[in-house]
């Protein structure tokens, strides 16, 4: 793919087709990046926002269950692997059961998750009916721009292949949906082959760095994503105890010239352009987490000294004295 947003667009079209009658709603977490929702709207559907689990920040089965009374309107689910983290084996099974109960196709946005594994070492790539990954410059598998679509269904992959080539089939005829030019440029593909050579080392370094930060910061009240040990760590997502603590961290990081960001704030259901769309009941976990989440810096060659500097910034808005990084 030329990028993951295009991947989501064609994955939705391949699995859900076009809206028919009242079946126009696509369930999507509000705690996600704008591109996920953009793809839903581009495909002609309307998002209905669902809440997330308070521990692993992946979609909430209870929130999905609230859509049972909307089954006649529901066309699909866009499930997100939040921050590129693979669901645990138990969560993978429970999410699959929750979406199966809705009896609609499932597209999975795993943008930052290329290379992520769960606690058993099982990689992403076979969730739902189709799964999408990003190779953007900000992702751990960075090739400037690009993406990947995976599926266990050859029919879905055939449809995606046509949709990213204007809709042309193998006979150069358009018999299905009109498509877009979503093909990956050859230069990006060549860069991807080069990045693959050192990708295992990149992931190992990022995971070790994130694990050190977790060990240092969890005792002072910083909350980390459950089950994220095998994630890819585009950055290190951390939830501070209060919105005020996050605001203070953002200010101190700015003054220290360290790039710390808030993420998914506001959540999608509170973005002005999307505020009129429905929700699956209240979204209390989303609204609380969005006010407290931060993205701590990460890089392929992040040094021990840099990790200590990041750690000390977070500690400066807590009460624990720093220790030396044994790296």
From TrEMBL:
One of its GO terms (molecular function) is pyridoxal phosphate binding. Transmembrane segments: none annotated. The active site is at residue 139. GO terms for biological process: polysaccharide biosynthetic process. Coiled coil: none annotated. It comes from the Bacteria. The modification N6-(pyridoxal phosphate)lysine is found at residue 139. Keywords: Pyridoxal phosphate. Belongs to the DegT/DnrJ/EryC1 family. PANTHER family: PROTEIN RV3402C, TRANSAMINASE. This is DegT/DnrJ/EryC1/StrS aminotransferase family protein. The lineage of its organism: Bacteria, Bacillati, Actinomycetota, Actinomycetes, Geodermatophilales.
């Amino acid at each position: 793919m030329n990028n993951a947003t295009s991947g989501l667009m064609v994955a939705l079209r391949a699995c859900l087709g076009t809206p028919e009658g009242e079946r126009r709603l696509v369930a999507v977490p509000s705690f996600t990046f704008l591109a996920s929702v953009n793809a839903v709207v581009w495909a002609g559907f309307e998002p209905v926002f669902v809440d997330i689990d308070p521990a692993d920040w992946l979609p909430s089965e209870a929130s999905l269950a609230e859509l049972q009374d909307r089954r006649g309107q529901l066309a699909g689910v866009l499930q997100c692997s939040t921050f590129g983290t693979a669901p645990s084996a138990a969560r993978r099974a429970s999410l699959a059961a929750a979406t199966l109960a809705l009896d609609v196709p499932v597209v999975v946005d795993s943008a930052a998750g290329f290379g992520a594994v769960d606690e058993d070492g099982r990689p992403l790539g076979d969730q739902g009916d189709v799964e999408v990954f990003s190779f953007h410059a900000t992702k751990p598998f960075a090739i400037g721009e690009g993406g990947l679509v995976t599926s266990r269904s050859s029919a879905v992959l055939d449809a995606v292949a046509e949709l990213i080539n204007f809709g042309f089939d193998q006979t150069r005829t358009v018999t299905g949906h009109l498509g877009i030019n979503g093909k990956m440029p050859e230069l990006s593909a060549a860069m991807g082959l080069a990045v693959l050579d050192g990708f295992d080392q990149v992931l190992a370094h990022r995971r070790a760095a994130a694990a050190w930060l977790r060990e240092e910061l969890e005792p002072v009240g910083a909350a980390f994503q459950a089950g994220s040990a095998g994630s890819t760590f585009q950055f290190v997502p951390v939830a501070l105890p209060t919105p005020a603590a996050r605001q203070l961290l953002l200010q101190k990081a700015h003054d220290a010239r360290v790039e710390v960001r808030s993420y998914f704030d506001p959540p999608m259901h509170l973005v002005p352009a999307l505020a009129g769309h429905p929700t699956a009941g209240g979204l209390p976990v989303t609204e609380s987490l969005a006010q407290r989440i931060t993205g701590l810096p990460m890089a392929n060659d992040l040094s021990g000294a840099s990790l200590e500097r990041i750690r000390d910034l977070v500690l400066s808005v807590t009460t624990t004295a720093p220790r030396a990084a044994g790296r």
